[in-house]
């Protein structure tokens, strides 16, 4: 008798072991089978061969791992299904939605055991086009931390898992780190502070462990360096004033501390196995004020701290590389930086952006004014191109004018303090 050429699965998937099925099918069969058999064979041939001995179950392939059993006698599919977070097979490949070549017949029509692993959560940096300046001190710190963690098994010293980069607002902490990742060929998993809170208790902590394991899989499966990066961690975990400490805050802190203490054993809810060893991957976090974070998390054994405050030379080099394509000389950049001292790096980026305002308003008038702006931007045909926009020519005078405008806005925010007009009883 030959194997069935197709079947329709009506219940959740079980591995192809006979002990999972009852000895007799119920009156209404669970499975609808369409089989082709040799007409000369009888039902007794299913259980015995010609000599009366039980027939050996035919394997799918000598090279197949689907039926390979572990030490507990469970096969690969059973173990993988037991560890899955979502047992609803309907979220997988659906017949008629995904090509049948990928849906297949063996596992059924509504299943995809590797669904979770096909989600792209790592970050690539194709959008970073152009020539940027990386501060040598910043690069040395990140490269050293990454290298130490990958060499941790052979180093005879304690290596902190987390690198905490902190400093003033808008100093390019995240951007400089991404530039270094691009230069090193690192494919990181990046999280934000907004993912550290949830309406469900335990979800953010579990998400951190999943993202950490994803970064580990990048190392193991793709052969690329990876890491877990959390931006603005103090915004999600910091204690400001009388803000409430939530269960998720405590679980996230405990999860990060546990990762530092056990970087190669990371559970996402499945049973522990001796063979489940996670590759150690470094963790990098950024923030503005680490004094607001739970102190045991930032202690020296767990987190190596790096205070980033670019000096004048760093600012001039970064801004010069930013304005270089506009034809602004280095001497002109120096004069702009000296005109607006004690400003963060994002000020000089916003300064250049504001010089586009006047030309953008002229472009809006050229395409028909504000009344037709929505139609031009959103409702045009696919083969229609937007009217040509010509970028303004950058001059030192235009940049200085934009800089004074930004400086005036900063002073108004600090001097007006309109919130006091609405809350008269607020203390100074």
What do you see in this structure?
With 428 residues, this protein is of the alpha/beta class. Helices cover 36% and strands 7% of the residues. The chain contains 14 helices and 7 strands. The chain has helices at 76-83, 100-103, 136-150, 173-184, 203-222, 233-237, 247-261, 312-323, 330-339, 345-354, 357-366, 373-378, 396-416, 419-422, and strands at residues 6-8, 32-34, 162-166, 189-192, 228-231, 283-287, 303-307. Helix 5 (203-222) links the parallel strand 4 (189-192) and strand 5. Helix 8 packs parallel to helix 10 (345-354). The model is unreliable at 1-47, 84-93 and 106-119 (pLDDT under 50).
Kindly list the characteristics that best describe this protein.
two-stranded antiparallel sheet, alpha/beta, five-stranded parallel sheet, 14 helices, globular, 428 residues
Order of helices and strands: EEHHHEHEHEHHEEHHHHHHH
**Overall outline:** globular
Beta-strand percent range: 5-15%
Helix content: 25-40%
Low-confidence stretches: 1-47, 84-93, 106-119
pLDDT average, as an integer? 77
Across the major sheet, the strand order is 4-5-6-3-7
Total of helices: 14
Summarize the structure.
36% of the residues lie in helices and 7% in strands. It is globular and about 75 Å long.
Write the topology of this structure.
Blueprint: E1 6-8, E2 32-34, H1 76-83, H2 100-103, H3 136-150, E3 162-166, H4 173-184, E4 189-192, H5 203-222, E5 228-231, H6 233-237, H7 247-261, E6 283-287, E7 303-307, H8 312-323, H9 330-339, H10 345-354, H11 357-366, H12 373-378, H13 396-416, H14 419-422
Parallel strand pairs: 3-6, 3-7, 4-5, 5-6
Antiparallel strand pairs: 1-2
Helix pairs in contact: 3-4, 5-7, 8-9, 8-10, 10-13
